[in-house]
């Protein structure tokens, strides 16, 4: 299994780059992963990452992107609850990319 | 959209010990992306899947019961529970999770997802489906 280096710690990731152990997550994981993607994380990115972690905490799943979109619209405002806004933040797909940064498994329903 | 079909997922087994309950839930969540008319039915030992305050720590299984509360987010609003199965196991609605969905058209009003039905009523609902999946 491959690993990523986060502040000197070697964390296991699966073949698609998702953390093998959700409990390994810390904010630095998202920083390291986003640097690999040449993406500068802003507070808007962090809102989504934190939202995903809370969603997982409550429901034990990573939401499908359409569920994420709807829930973000409700919690963070209608202007953010659309795929244009979310894909603007996470060009590789808000479900997949943001979940990866958040240390979650690949979203259920993302095939 | 043309050709919306009625899909019912029938859950008959206790949540842990076999993989059926979790597999069913995963298929439901994945299938929800296809905009069909989806409902779930819980009968026989399947009613145990919805029991609230599950704790699987001692058994070493992942407790996936919180995921049922996400069904509403996936626009699954019809969860049928068979009355006879529930009663035969000494359970009542109060022993189950309170599952709700939010109606966007009514300012996110919370509505109950669980419908307690008799065996005869459920048979009628089943007869009305296009597709039944048994787990």
Please describe the structure with a list of short key phrases separated by commas or semicolons.
heterodimer; A: 111 residues; mainly alpha; Arc Repressor Mutant, subunit A; two-stranded antiparallel sheet; B: 135 residues; alpha/beta; Hypothetical Protein Ychn, Chain: A; five-stranded parallel sheet; 3 helices; globular
Tell me the Rg of chain B in angstroms: 15 Å
Contiguous runs where pLDDT drops below 50 for at least 5 residues of chain A? none
Highest-level CATH class of chain A: Mainly Alpha
The CATH architecture classification of chain A is Orthogonal Bundle
Alpha plus pi helix count of chain B: 3
Task: Give the N-terminus to C-terminus distance of chain A in angstroms.
Answer: 22 Å
Radius of gyration over C-alpha positions of chain A, nearest whole angstrom: 13 Å
Return the domain count of chain A: 1
CATH fold naming of chain B: Hypothetical Protein Ychn, Chain: A
The helix content of chain A is: 40-55%
Largest interface: A-B, 14 and 17 residues
Q: What is the CATH domain class of chain B?
A: Alpha Beta
Name given to the CATH architecture of chain B: 3-Layer(aba) Sandwich
The general outline of chain A is globular
Strand percentage of chain A lies at 5-15%
